[in-house]
Amino acid sequence: MERAAAGVARIRAAGYPTPAWLAVGTSADGFGYQIQEFARGHTRPQVTASEARLLIGVLEMHAGLDPDPQRCWSEFVTTRMTGEDLWRQTAGTGPTGRDLVHACRRLLAAHGPVTLPIEDLVHGDFRPGNILFEADRVSGVVDIEALGSGTRVFDYATLLSAHDFSPEALEMLCDAGEQVAGPGVLAYCFAQVALDLTVFVHQRNLQLGIENVGKLLERTLILLRRAEGQA
Questions:
Q1: What percentage of the chain reaches a pLDDT higher than 70?
Q2: Distance between CA 81 and CA 79 in Å, rounded?
Q3: Could you tell me which residues are beta bridge partners of residue 26?
């Protein structure tokens, strides 16, 4: 937590819209804590084109904003994807998990090998539930304790794993994510996010998340169709 506090201070100094941390410490039980300033705003239930434009604006602020080179999300993603545990665990969640593994393997094969960039801010959990809106602006990005360096494409991929998008918003975010470092990098990051999220919700028996695994499969197939259309 104390390490994250330094990164939060650095990105706030660059104008990033995350609340200031007013206090950071460790409890008597050994748990890190932080107290943030109050951020006004509300989450929105669906990402439409108007939200997508605002979110893309925030995500592009991540470019070159390297808060902690020793905490690299790109290295984490590559390690997870090149091992077999994540693939095996996802397949073990059931028929939809096995279909997702198959679709992700096809998606990665369609693009071939990629190298993930390492010089951006990565939030690590950039989902609609962690974004506050007020009027026509993003008023706060919260739950940022896992921030590190890597490629902002990972945050695009995480956002694309959310369950409720308008078709226009989905296309806008795919286009923007692919423009950062190419469609292969977005595909690779999304596959990792989708596989990891599937394992996470099954291990914790999160029913809503389990029900949404089918949407992760649908998004994977959308990216696959985009790859095949570009071939």
A1: 99
A2: 6
A3: 32
Residue 134 pairs in a beta bridge with 137
**Range list of H helices, 84-182:** 85-91, 95-111, 153-160, 167-181
pTM assigned to the model: 0.96
pLDDT for 212: 94
- For residue range 73-108, list pLDDT tens digits in order: 999 999 999 999 999 999 999 999 999 999 999 999
CA 181 to chain centre: 15
Q: What is the pLDDT of residue 3?
A: 87
What confidence score (pLDDT) does residue 231 get? 54
d(CA 71, CA 212): 30
Domains of the chain (ranges, CATH numbers): 41-230 (3.90.1200.10)
Phi, psi of 25 (to 5 degrees): -170, -170
The sign one gets for the Cα dihedral 31, 36, 40, 44 is negative
